[in-house]
Structure formats: structure tokens, C-alpha cells
């Protein structure tokens, strides 16, 4: 017989003839030697074989034991092993064997009694006790596999151990889960397997209407045979009470799986109870799980239990009002825990209840609750913080629309809040909510939900989103918002909780702004109260910057001033109070607060254009802001004040001071800050960036007419492109270079009508081109886009404009300037006369850098250009002149010299200077390069730079040995042999040895002997020892052998 199981795919491996072989193999396993995977497979195999229909008692006995006894004896050691996997499969095998008709009478009670006695003897109730866990697992499997009439015999003995688990808090997860499983299955044994007649019978629950009639008929036949009408039969109330107590306690356990197990147990047991008893169970759940002091675990377990009862049809119709009240609270449930809150699982379970109600009850029974359910689910689908809860609410809403049919605007709303639409939180808050609010049923519910639940939410992002959503929703029902919502927001401003206070301020500002857009008139007292808020909040904002309350209030004031500057009547605004809050925010150390202050300041300064306010602001700028930005010792303060100056309106900038317009005084102060650097602010690249940004905004706003000569602005921007400041964050100067390039894209076209030195403009373009070929991806992209903008602007007289357009503009394909492949296109710049030097300098920094992909892309592009001209001494000399100029202009600058040496090494390794190998002295540039290499080897920069100098010099030793260049290079290498650093001595010796070995054979015997002695000397000298005088002698000896003068 081949068993019809999943094992049949093994081509008959589960035939009954294998029974004895598998059992014998199991008996041979020695569990004391460890547990193997093969033993696990044998147990699984045995489970499948034990499903055969033959009487096991008819199998032959072996050593006086039946087959069942052998299986039990062999499997018990695995049941008590330390492996959870083996415990489960052993329990499954034992329960399968013990509950067979041919074995249950003799072995079932023995196994159960063994488990009961083992559990009673266990002192601790923890999963570390393998015998306890194994016994519980076996009991749970037996109670699941056995027949009720067989299990009734052992039920009371099993119930005796339930008092050991009366307090689930004293056990761990594994023991709890098995205990709850045993309890619920034991309860099913005590109760008859019949469905209670009081069950809510909706009829066909399947949407497959084609088979509706047949399904209905089958269900009716089933119910007729199983229904009972409160018949009296013996129920062990004491044991059943203990079972229910365990299960109900499990609903409040801290582990989710335990609560799930308890909820399913409640559903199964209540399905067999009388209605009065079922009401008692439900009342207990309502009382203890949904208490105001109950935690999120109790609420979650209670919701799961109610959902299970509703799904199975055992939720009494008269309990619906209580259930709907619980659902309403559960959909917004949150248990605060410091800076976060628990409750997402409760809200998800509440959606499960709504989903179950849609499937269980008739539309007529839910008709009076439809609006409440619909509005609650829509609010949860739109505004819940967690995506899984929003999607669960959407699914529940969809179930109601499909099965109940009476949801107002159900299909239209469902289209907007489907599974994918609610996936993005900001979209749900700001876009979808406005579309749903067009339907009258949901308008007020949505607005009230945001006001009472989301404005005071613990997550700041939710509070901000809710406030912005209220701003947009004002247009849906402005009268309701103005009469009900505003008065509910006012008390929040003076709340003791800073979280609630921040939400109230932001929401009030958003609502007042939204109502102003709707042209809704409010009372003057509301505006007066709102105008005093900055003065009320300032003491909190003034607290130390790192405090949570200060940050919350500063962000709130940014939104408040931004939205209400143009809403509150000007005569009610106290300029000093509002300006004080803005000044704090502008100088905050957090970038997001400073950015928010920029937006708020831009809106606020536009309403300060009357004479008194403008003069007050001008006086404050001259006496406070400009001196403070110059002498501050905090970079964030400089950034903030510069940002404040950048958002000043024209009316303020054009005011005239005693000597010049205010804009000119601001620009000149900022230029001084950018150009002059002290030991304190030398690395403040972000502060200088903000100053350059402010200069650009002011110039773009008022033009150059007031300034007279724009050269000082141009000089400041061009000089900013030389900023390569470094700190612990790396090259922070890049932010200033990028901002300066963006500024040049704005001001260069504006300067054409003024007498500006065109050479200076060309220099600016050259430096931008250099940035476009350097190694930082973001800077390279910024420079390329700036060049494209300049080439497409009205800027005239650009040198070699056509090739620049081919590089940066022409072509239908989009160039990814951040990718190394862009260097192939940028290599066109190396063929220009005007831009070759600056492009080559950028290529050198990229090709000699550390990032492998950038190094490969830049070096391949550079070497391909040099390869094409390698036979032309004239063209090669032009490139060598550029290299020499880079050496001269950047002497001692490790940032440039190190990559330059690496690049030269790559060029020499590729033998691209072969046209000079025979007579290198023909190239003056090569002589200059070698001279500067010798200088750099002696200067500062670390061992790595000296190693690079030696590597390049050794490449020059492959040139003509009679040349002066060869002698200079050899002299540098020989001089390094007596360095005080052992690593440098050894490296120089290795490089010199490799160079000499690779030369062609020498025909002169005397010279050949000398060369062999030199190689032997280099290889046998112990370069790591500490003897300076010895290495001086060795160096002199090597120089004599090479016929060069030692120094």
C-alpha cells in the first residue's frame, strides 16, 4: 500500500514494508551522542507510516514488546530533548500513535498520566525544563488528535494540573503558549461538539452566488443535525471555569501569540456554550480587557476575541452597541510610553472587528451603525500613523461596501482609499482627505478626528501633517471650522504639555490661515489672542537649545509666523515680540529650524514695510545683526543671520543709511566675512556659504546699480572657488564652492552691462570648469549644470564657446554627471587652449584620488587623450607644461601634489612619454617636474608622498642614463637610501633594484660586474636596522656605482 500523503512524491518510499526498517533505524539512534538531521527525517517518516489503516497489534513482537511500545520507548527521549523542533515532531508522533483505535485503550491513559506526573514534579515553570515543555507539547497534541469519547476518560486528570498555570505571569512564552493550547482543547473536550442554536445565522456568507443555493442547503442539513436547544447535559463547571480563567487571562498577556491563541480559544469554546454563559464570557472580556486602566495588551486581546466571536457568528445582536463603542475607542487607542506610544496592534484588531461585523451581520441589523462605522474607518484609513493599520481600515471599509451595501458614497470613497492609495502617509493626509471631505457625511468627522486626535499626537510629524490638512480642509466647511474648531484649539495653547501646546499653536495658525483664504470673517478677540502667542511662548523658546520644549516651540513659532503674518491685522502685531522669536530661530543650531525661520522671516518682513517698522528693522540690522555676524563665535549664528539678511524685502534693502544704501552695507559686510578668515572661522565653510547665498539673493533683488562696481562681488565669488577647507567631516569647502558657482550663474549675465574685467569673468569660467572635472560627484554635477546654464544664458564673449557647448549642452541624451562615465565627455576640454590647464588640474585630482570608480573613469579618459598624441613632442610638451605649472602653483599642497604624483606614475607606467626616452633633456618641463619632485620629497606631507616621489623618479630611470634628468632622478632615490625612516629606505632600495634589473643587458664586462655588485648590495643590505652612519656609507657606495655625486 502506498500512502496517499505528501510523501508519495518519493516514489513509494512510504510503503508499509518500510515500517520495520524505519522503526529499527530509530531504535539504533543514540540521542546521547547528539541530535542529527537524519533522526528528524526518520521521525517525520515514521509519522507518515503511522497513518496506515492496518492494526498495529498484528505486527510481530520484538524482544517482548509490541510495535506501539517500541515506538513510544524510542520517541520519548526525543520528546524530552533540548531541541524545540524535535519536541514538536516527537509529540506529534506519540499523539498520533496513542490516539489510534488499536492503541488508545492501552497506551493513551499511560502517556497522559506520565505527562501529568512529570508536570506536577516540575518545580519551576520555565521553558528551560525540557520535560515540562515536552509534556505540555504532548498533551496539546493528544487533545488535538484524539476523539472526544477517548479523551473524556483522561480530561479530569489533565484538568488537575491547570492550577499550576493559573498565574501565567510567572512563566515564559513557550510554557504559556502550550498551557493555553491545552486549556482551550481541554474545554472542547468538556463540551459537546455541537453548534449552539442561538448562533447568528446570516445565511450564505460566500460571494459565489452561482453556488449559493447548494451551499445554503448543505449548511441547513449540517445545522439540523447538530443544533440543540439548551438541552441539559452534565458540564463540569469547576473544570470549565478553570479553563476559561486561563484563556481569559491569556487575552491580557504581553505576548501577541498568546493573545491570539486565547482569542481563538474563546471563539471555539463560546460556540458550544449556552447563550447565558456566552454573555457571561463576553461581559468578562468587556469588564477586564476594555477598562480605562487596561494596557494595550488587554485591549488587543479583547479586540481579537470579539472579532473571533463576530466572525463565527456568536456575538449576540444586543451587544452590538457596546461593541461599536469599544471599536470607536480602539480605532484611536494609544498608550503613551515616553517619546512614543503603543497601540498600533489594538487599532489593527479594531479593524479586524469591523471586517468581521461586515461578514457576520445582515445589513438591516447594522443599518443604524453604518454612519458611525463608515466615518471611523475612513478616519483610520486616512490618518493612522501606521501603514498596516491604514490598509486594514481600508480593507474593512471595502468589506462593508461589498457585503453591507448601505455605506454612503461607498464605491466612490473606496476608490480613493484603496490599499495602494493609503500607502503614502503625506498623500493620505493632504490630498485624499480633501477629496473624501467633499462628501457631507465625512466632512465633520474628518475635521473633528484631526482636531481631537491628531493635533495632540505624540509624533511631531503627525501633528504638522494634521495641521496642514486642517488648513486645506477649511475650504470644505468653513462655517463649521470657524464656529467649532477654533474654540476647541484655543485652550490647547495654554496646555501644560508642550506636545499639546505645539500642536495647538500649529493647528490654530493653519486654521486661521485657511479661513482667511476662504474669506471667512472671525472675531477680533480671536486675532488678539493669537497675536499674543509669540510673547507667551518666547520664555520657552529661550530655554537652552538642546531642550525638547525649546525645539518644539521654535518649530511651532516658525509655522505660526509664516502663516499668520499676513492674516492677523497689522495693528495687533507686536513687532518686537515676533522678531525676538524669529531671531532665536534664525540662530538655532538645528538646520531644519533655521530653514523654517527663513520661510517665516520672508513672510513676516513683507508686512514690516511701513515707515516705523522699516526703520526699526533697519536699526536692528545695523546695530545688532551686522556686528553679531562679524564677531560671533558660533557658526550656526552666522548661518542664521546671513539667512535672515537674504530674505529681506526690497523695501528694507533700498532704505538709505547715513553713508550708503542698506543693501550695499550688508553686501560689503558679507564680502568681508567671506574673504577674511581667522583661526576661529577658517573651517566655517557653511557660514561662508550662507553669506554667499545672501549676497546672491540681495544682488538678484536690487541689482548692481546701488553697488556701483560689481567687481568686488565677482572677486569674492571667484575666490570662494578656491576654498578647500577640511574638518572632521571632510572637504567642507565644497559647499561654499557649489554655492559660489550657483551665484556666478546668476550674477555673471547681470554684469555684462557694467565695466567688469573680462579676464576675471574668464577666470571664473575656468574655475567652474575645473570643478566640473574634480572628484566629488555632487560638486562635479553642480559645476556642469552651472556651465550649461551660463552657456544657455545671455552671457557673451565666452572663449571657445563651441567646444564648451559640445561638452555641456549638445546631445539629446541626458548626461549623468555623477557617474565616472562623464569623464569621457569632459576629456574634450583637454584639447582646448584656454581651459586645458584647469581641466587637467581637475582630472589630476580625480585620477589620483581614492575612489576606485572615479580614479578609473578619470584616468582612462586622460590617458586616452595623451595616447593619441604620444608621438608628438610638441603636443606632449604642452601637457607637460601644464603638469609643471600645477607643480609650481601648488608647491607644498598635499591635496594637489599627491594626486599629481599618482597621475604621473600612471602616465609613465603606460609609457606615454616614449618620445622623450632617448633624450629627456629636450623637455624643459620634464626638468622642472623632476626638480619639484625632489623638493616635494624633502618637504612636509608624510611618508606616502615621499614614496610617490620615489616611484615617479624610478620611472624616469628608464630614460637615457646619460641625461641630466636621469642623474637628478637617481640622485633622489639614492639620497632616500639614507633616510631616517626604515620603510622609506627599504622602498627606495626595492624600487631601484627593480629598475636596474629590468634594464637591457650591458655589453661591457666591467660595467656588468659593477651592476651585479650593486644589485647584490641592494638585496642583501638590512634596511630595517637602526644605524644612520651605516646607511650613509651604503648610499655613498651606491652613488659611486651609479657614477653620480652623492649629497
Automatic annotation (TrEMBL):
Gene3D superfamilies hit by this protein: Leucine-rich Repeat Variant
One GO BP annotation of this record: bicellular tight junction assembly
Domain annotation Tubulin-folding cofactor D ARM repeats: ranges: 175-411
GO CC terms: lateral plasma membrane
Keywords annotated in UniProt: Chaperone
Domain named Tubulin-folding cofactor D C-terminal: residues: 763-945
InterPro entries for this protein: ARM-like, ARM-type_fold, ARM_TBCD_2nd, TBCD, TBCD_C
Any GO MF annotation of the entry: GTPase activator activity
Statement: the UniProt record of this protein carries the keyword Chaperone: yes
Family from the record: Belongs to the TBCD family.
The protein's name: Tubulin-specific chaperone D
Protein's organism: Thelazia callipaeda
Amino acid at each position: 500500500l502506498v500512502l496517499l500523503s505528501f510523501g508519495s512524491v518519493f516514489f513509494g518510499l512510504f510503503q508499509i514494508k518500510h515500517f520495520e526498517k524505519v522503526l529499527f533505524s530509530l531504535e539504533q539512534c543514540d540521542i546521547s551522542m547528539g541530535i542529527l538531521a537524519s533522526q528528524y527525517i526518520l521521525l517525520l517518516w515514521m509519522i507518515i507510516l503511522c497513518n496506515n489503516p492496518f492494526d498495529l497489534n498484528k505486527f510481530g513482537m520484538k524482544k517482548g514488546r509490541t510495535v506501539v511500545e517500541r515506538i513510544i520507548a524510542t520517541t520519548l527521549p526525543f520528546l524530552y530533548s533540548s531541541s524545540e523542533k524535535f519536541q514538536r515532531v516527537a509529540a506529534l508522533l506519540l499523539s498520533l500513535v496513542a490516539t489510534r483505535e488499536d492503541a488508545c485503550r492501552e497506551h493513551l491513559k499511560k502517556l497522559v498520566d506520565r505527562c501529568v506526573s512529570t508536570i506536577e514534579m516540575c518545580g519551576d515553570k520555565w521553558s528551560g525544563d525540557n520535560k515540562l515543555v515536552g509534556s505540555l507539547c504532548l498533551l496539546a497534541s493528544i487533545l488535538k488528535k484524539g476523539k472526544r469519547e477517548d479523551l473524556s476518560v483522561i480530561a479530569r486528570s489533565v484538568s488537575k494540573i491547570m492550577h499550576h498555570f493559573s498565574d501565567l505571569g510567572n512563566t515564559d512564552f513557550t510554557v504559556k503558549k502550550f498551557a493555553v493550547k491545552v486549556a482551550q482543547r481541554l474545554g472542547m473536550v468538556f463540551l459537546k461538539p455541537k453548534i449552539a442554536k442561538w448562533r447568528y445565522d446570516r445565511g450564505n456568507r460566500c460571494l459565489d452566488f452561482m453556488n449559493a443555493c447548494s451551499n445554503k442547503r448543505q449548511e441547513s442539513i449540517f445545522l439540523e443535525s447538530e443544533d440543540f436547544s439548551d438541552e441539559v447535559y452534565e458540564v463540569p463547571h469547576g473544570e470549565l471555569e478553570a479553563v476559561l480563567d486561563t484563556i481569559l487571562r491569556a487575552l491580557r498577556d504581553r505576548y501577541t501569540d498568546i493573545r491570539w491563541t486565547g482569542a481563538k480559544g474563546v471563539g471555539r469554546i463560546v460556540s458550544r456554550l449556552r447563550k447565558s454563559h456566552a454573555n457571561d464570557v463576553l461581559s468578562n472580556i468587556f469588564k477586564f480587557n476594555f477598562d480605562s486602566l487596561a494596557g494595550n495588551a488587554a485591549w488587543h486581546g479583547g479586540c481579537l476575541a470579539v472579532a473571533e466571536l463576530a466572525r463565527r457568528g456568536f456575538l449576540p445582536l444586543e451587544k452590538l452597541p457596546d461593541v461599536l463603542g469599544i471599536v470607536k475607542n480602539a480605532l484611536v487607542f494609544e498608550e503613551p510610553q515616553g517619546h512614543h506610544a503603543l497601540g498600533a496592534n489594538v487599532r489593527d484588531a479594531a479593524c479586524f472587528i469591523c471586517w468581521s461585523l461586515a461578514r457576520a451581520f445582515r445589513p438591516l441589523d447594522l443599518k443604524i451603525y453604518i454612519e458611525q462605522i463608515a466615518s471611523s474607518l475612513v478616519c483610520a484609513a486616512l490618518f493612522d500613523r501606521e501603514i498596516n493599520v491604514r490598509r486594514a481600515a481600508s480593507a474593512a471599509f471595502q468589506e462593508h461596501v461589498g457585503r453591507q451595501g448601505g455605506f454612503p458614497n461607498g464605491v466612490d470613497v473606496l476608490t480613493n482609499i484603496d490599499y495602494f492609495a493609503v500607502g503614502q502617509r503625506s498623500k493620505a493626509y493632504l490630498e485624499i482627505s480633501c477629496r473624501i471631505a467633499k462628501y457631507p457625511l465625512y466632512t465633520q468627522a474628518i475635521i473633528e478626528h484631526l482636531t481631537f486626535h491628531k493635533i495632540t499626537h505624540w509624533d511631531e510629524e503627525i501633528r504638522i501633517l494634521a495641521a496642514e490638512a486642517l488648513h486645506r480642509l477649511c475650504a470644505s466647511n468653513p462655517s463649521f471650522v470657524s464656529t467649532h474648531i477654533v474654540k476647541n484649539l484655543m485652550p490647547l495653547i495654554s496646555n501644560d504639555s508642550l506636545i499639546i501646546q505645539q500642536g495647538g499653536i500649529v493647528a490654530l495658525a493653519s486654521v486661521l490661515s485657511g479661513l482667511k483664504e476662504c474669506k471667512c470673517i472671525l472675531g477680533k478677540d480671536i486675532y488678539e489672542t493669537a497675536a499674543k502667542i509669540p510673547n507667551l511662548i518666547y520664555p520657552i523658546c529661550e530655554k537652552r537649545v538642546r531642550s525638547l520644549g525649546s525645539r518644539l516651540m521654535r518649530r511651532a513659532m516658525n509655522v505660526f509666523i509664516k502663516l499668520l503674518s499676513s492674516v492677523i491685522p497689522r495693528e495687533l502685531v507686536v513687532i518686537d515680540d515676533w522678531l525676538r522669536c524669529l531671531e532665536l530661530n534664525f540662530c538655532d543650531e538645528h538646520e531644519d529650524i533655521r530653514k523654517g525661520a527663513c520661510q517665516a522671516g520672508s513672510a513676516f518682513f513683507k508686512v514690516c514695510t511701513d515707515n516705523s517698522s522699516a526703520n526699526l528693522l533697519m536699526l536692528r540690522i545695523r546695530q545688532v545683526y551686522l556686528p553679531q555676524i562679524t564677531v560671533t563665535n558660533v557658526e550656526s549664528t552666522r548661518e542664521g543671520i546671513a539667512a535672515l539678511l537674504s530674505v529681506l524685502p526690497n523695501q528694507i534693502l533700498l532704505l538709505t543709511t547715513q553713508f550708503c544704501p542698506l543693501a550695499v552695507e550688508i553686501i560689503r559686510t558679507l564680502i568681508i566675512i567671506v574673504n577674511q578668515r581667522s583661526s576661529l572661522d577658517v573651517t566655517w565653510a557653511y557660514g561662508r556659504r550662507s553669506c554667499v547665498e545672501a549676497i546672491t539673493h540681495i544682488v538678484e533683488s536690487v541689482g548692481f546699480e546701488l553697488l556701483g562696481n560689481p567687481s568686488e562681488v565677482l572677486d569674492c565669488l571667484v575666490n570662494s572657488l578656491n576654498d578647500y577647507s577640511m574638518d572632521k567631516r571632510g572637504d567642507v569647502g565644497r559647499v561654499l564652492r557649489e554655492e559660489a558657482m550657483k551665484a556666478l550663474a546668476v550674477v555673471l549675465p547681470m554684469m555684462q552691462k557694467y565695466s567688469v574685467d573680462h579676464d576675471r569673468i574668464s577666470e571664473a569660467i575656468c574655475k567652474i570648469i575645473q570643478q566640473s572635472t574634480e572628484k566629488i560627484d555632487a560638486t562635479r554635477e553642480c559645476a556642469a549644470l552651472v556651465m550649461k546654464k551660463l552657456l544657455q544664458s545671455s552671457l557673451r564673449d565666452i572663449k571657445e564657446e563651441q567646444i564648451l557647448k559640445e561638452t555641456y549642452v549638445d546631445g539629446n541624451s541626458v548626461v549623468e554627471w555623477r557617474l565616472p562615465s562623464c569623464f569621457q565627455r569632459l576629456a574634450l576640454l583637454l584639447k582646448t587652449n584656454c581651459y586645458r590647464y584647469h581641466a587637467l588640474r581637475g582630472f589630476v585630482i580625480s585620477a589620483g584620488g581614492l575612489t576606485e570608480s572615479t580614479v578609473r573613469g578619470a584616468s582612462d579618459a586622460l590617458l586616452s587623450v595623451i595616447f593619441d598624441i604620444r608621438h608628438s613632442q610638441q603636443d606632449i610638451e604642452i601637457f607637460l607644461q601644464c603638469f609643471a605649472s600645477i607643480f609650481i602653483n601648488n608647491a607644498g599642497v598635499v591635496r594637489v601634489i599627491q594626486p599629481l604624483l599618482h597621475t604621473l606614475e600612471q602616465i609613465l607606467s603606460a609609457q606615454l612619454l616614449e618620445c622623450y626616452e632617448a633624450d629627456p633633456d629636450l623637455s624643459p618641463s620634464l626638468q622642472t617636474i623632476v626638480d619639484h619632485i625632489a623638493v616635494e620629497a624633502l618637504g612636509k606631507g608624510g611618508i606616502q608622498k615621499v614614496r610617490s616621489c620615489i616611484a615617479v623618479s624610478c620611472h624616469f630611470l628608464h630614460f637615457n642614463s646619460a641625461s641630466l634628468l636621469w642623474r637628478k632622478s637617481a640622485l633622489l632615490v639614492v639620497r632616500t637610501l639614507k633616510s631616517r625612516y626604515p620603510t622609506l629606505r627599504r622602498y627606495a632600495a626595492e624600487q631601484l633594484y627593480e629598475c636596474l634589473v629590468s634594464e637591457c643587458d650591458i655589453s661591457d664586462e666591467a660595467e656588468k660586474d659593477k651592476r651585479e655588485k650593486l644589485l647584490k648590495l641592494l638585496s642583501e643590505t638590512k634596511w630595517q636596522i637602526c644605524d644612520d652612519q651605516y646607511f650613509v656609507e651604503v648610499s655613498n657606495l651606491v652613488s659611486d656605482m651609479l657614477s653620480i655625486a652623492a649629497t
